[in-house]
Every structure is written in C-alpha cells, then in structure tokens.
Amino acid sequence: MPSRAEFAEGYGLTSRAVEWFIEAYVSDPAQRQDPRFAPVLAENLGVLPPTVLFSAGLDPLRDDARVLSKRLRASGVHVLASEEPTLPHGYFKYAGLSEAAAEAVVRMTTAFRDLLDDRCADVAYSERELK
After folding, report:
1. Dist CA 43 CA 39 (whole Å)
2. Residue whose C-alpha is closest to residue 54's, from 83, 86, 77, 11
3. Counting Cβ atoms within 10 Å, is residue 74 exposed (0-12), middle (13-18) or buried (19+)?
4. Which residues make Cβ contacts (< 8 Å) with residue 109, sequence separation at least 6?
C-alpha cells in the first residue's frame, strides 16, 4: 500500500513496526491471507455490524483503512468513516496536547454514541412492535 512507504518513518508508528507486529501475530506467512487475520480479505463482509472507522492521514495504515471502508460499504455495511488528514496513528492519545486530536476524538466518540443511540432506538422500536 502506498501509505506504508509514504509514512514509513517519522510519524510515530513505522512500517517496520507494522511488519514486526504482523510477524509476531502470524508466524506462517500464509496466514496473512486468512480473513481471521485480516477481515478485509473475507468474501462476505456484509455479515458485519455497522462500523465506525476513524483513521489517520499520516499513518502507514491509512490505505488499509480506506480499503476496509470501501469494501464494507460495497458489502452493504453501514459505515461512519473519517480520515483525520493532519494526524498520525494513535492520535487519540494526544488529545490532551493537540487541539486537532481532541476535536477528532470528540468526532469519533460522537459517531460511536450516535451509532449506539440509533441501534438502541431500533431495538426499542422492534421490542414495542412485538408487544
């Protein structure tokens, strides 16, 4: 993915660290093609629940998030996605130091809350219909 090269170093998470984590998680290279390792590889993503996907623009994993969002939407999954173009991987931990990170965290938590409120409203409505 282009972002692995573009943000290989200098933005916190490095591409070398990403590879280290992958190798620590899957010892057999063939496992990298297993959807249990990378759900984006599954044939049918349509069985997944609504998804909130926030990503960072200065992140070696940025393009992975873009592909996942696109595949989820193509499979009919409701996706609330946002890419924070000026922030690095793990930006939420900088919320106390960076106004941009703090604002992104507010957007992220609001999206989660809204999604949960909608899902809870759907459940409550369904339960009323059943009575």
Report:
1. 9
2. 83
3. exposed
4. none
Q: Which residues pair with 54 in a beta bridge?
A: 82
- Residue 122 predicted with pLDDT over 70: no
Total Cβ atoms within 10 A of residue 84: 22
What is the residue type of 63? D
The angle subtended at Cα 57 by Cα 67 and Cα 21, nearest 5°, is 70
Question: Are the CB atoms for 66 and 73 separated by under 8 Å?
Answer: no
Residue 52: the pLDDT is 86
Helices (H), the chain: 2-6, 15-25, 62-74, 99-130
Write out pLDDT tens, residues 39-70. 899 999 999 988 888 999 999 999 999 999 99
Q: What is the pTM of this model?
A: 0.81
User: From CA 121, how far away is CA 78, in angstroms rounded?
Assistant: 16
Q: Which helix (H) or strand (E) holds 84?
A: strand 79-88
What residues does 56 pair with on adjacent strands? Answer: 84
